[in-house]
Write a structure and sequence with these properties.
94 residues; alpha+beta; three-stranded antiparallel sheet; elongated
């Protein structure tokens, strides 16, 4: 089992985090799959837009990102002080 995120993320140590996600089973995230001939290039812009939208909702800054054919990387900055000021209703609405 994975450790809880509270043991992995400590904004007091650093507010910057490099996150990555990879597709499994040779699946394609973006680009043309030479094996099947399918094109997934339309997903690249959706991933970018959705990442920026979610960063705004959760009060993060996207410092850098790249979307490759089968994985992506994103560097996030956590606005701890602003998030700490949220009440429970604000957290739930986000």
């Amino acid at each position: 089992m994975s450790p809880p995120s509270s043991s992995l993320i400590d904004p007091c140590t650093t507010p910057y985090y490099h996150c990555a996600s990879r597709c499994v089973r040779r699946a394609f995230l973006c680009g043309r799959d030479e094996r099947t001939g399918q094109c997934f290039e339309h997903c690249r812009q959706w991933i970018e837009n959705r990442s920026l939208e979610l960063a705004d909702i959760f009060d993060l800054d996207v410092c850098a990102y790249t979307v490759l054919s089968n994985h992506y990387h994103i560097v996030l900055f956590i606005h701890k002080q602003q998030a700490d000021d949220w009440d429970l209703k604000e957290v739930v609405s986000r």
